[in-house]
Amino acid sequence: MEQKNFSLLFLYREFKPHIFMVLSQVGYTFLYFITEASFNHGMSPYVYVTYRHVVAGVVMFPFAYFLERKIRPKLTCSLFMEFFVLSVLGISLTLNVYFACLRDTSPTFVASVINTIASLTFIIAVVLRFEVVDLRNPHGIAKVIGSLISLAGVMMITLYKGPIMKDLWRPLIHIQPKSGPINDSGLKGSLLTVACCFTWSLWYIMQASTLKRYPAQLSLTTWMCFIGAAQSALFTAIAEHNNPSAWIIGLNIDLWSTIYGGIVVGGLLIYIQLWCTEKKGPVFVTLFNPLSTIFVTILAYFVLGEKLYLGSIIGSFIVIIGLYLLLWGKEGDKEVDFKTKGILQQNNEDLECRI
């Protein structure tokens, strides 16, 4: 019994980042649907982003203040500017455009296209030397091939529909359809979604750089929430200047989506991502994004009655294959680190013996 408990504890410690990232994708999956319901109810996505990060900042502040008093580095002007840029890339600019796309399309479509973040982050990380790719090593080849396969799966989900799968039962929850025609492949929506993917990829890369100088994840999360909320409030004031009533929300789905987005997504999940970024790097974090596409597709089909196409099923399996290849390739980095540390330790021992 003790041996079994020891094995489970070892597995948990070894795969804790993996477990946290899978759970975070479950959290993002519910976000797609609760925000879609809120936007269909009439809430402005710009107001939602502002309120959500006000809630997140207020909730995270006491944890950051008390738990990181001893490890929090001194705030400098250059660090504050980094926080400002991070807030633009990850909150005020990207999220406002992202939720505008979600309002005009569907959760399945946006979740599918957003998964190009993993491939874009990998490419940018390689160019900026945050990620090392050794094509002479099987793990390095696996990372490249896995990235391409994952991207191919996402493109299949997005571009190829195929036959419609037969409905097994009536939807458990009914969300009112959006008014007006929706064109998922429209030029405007596609360009905006790709722009979100690019800025989000830069956000993940920049987090890894900032965390080296400011290794206080809770404090960094709080700073980004407050700064991002202020930036988004300014943007919202401009976008909704003819609609002051947009700032008013009642005791309905608008309030619950704001609380969920603020506490769970804006606070807890961002902190988890920062922790995993520091432990495993930005590419590792984005590798799990395709899981939300699969979860959204399954939930939309079985619970909401959204149409499920054969292309989505095939594409999901392709994405999973690419994800496993990338993860296997990333595990090779750990082996290289262990070998490098062993060589350095051996060299130090030889040097001491000579001395």
From TrEMBL:
It comes from the Eukaryota. One of its GO terms (cellular component) is membrane. Signal peptide: none annotated. GO terms for molecular function: transmembrane transporter activity. The chain crosses the membrane at residues 20-39, 45-67, 79-100, 106-128, 140-160, 187-206, 218-239, 245-271, 283-303, 309-329. Keywords: Membrane, Transmembrane, Transmembrane helix. It is found in: Membrane. InterPro entries: EamA_dom, EmrE-like, WAT1-related. It is a multi-pass membrane protein. Residues 18-158, 188-327 form the EamA domain. Pfam families: EamA. Belongs to the drug/metabolite transporter (DMT) superfamily. Plant drug/metabolite exporter (P-DME) (TC 2.A.7.4) family. PANTHER family: WAT1-RELATED PROTEIN. This is WAT1-related protein. It comes from Cicer arietinum.
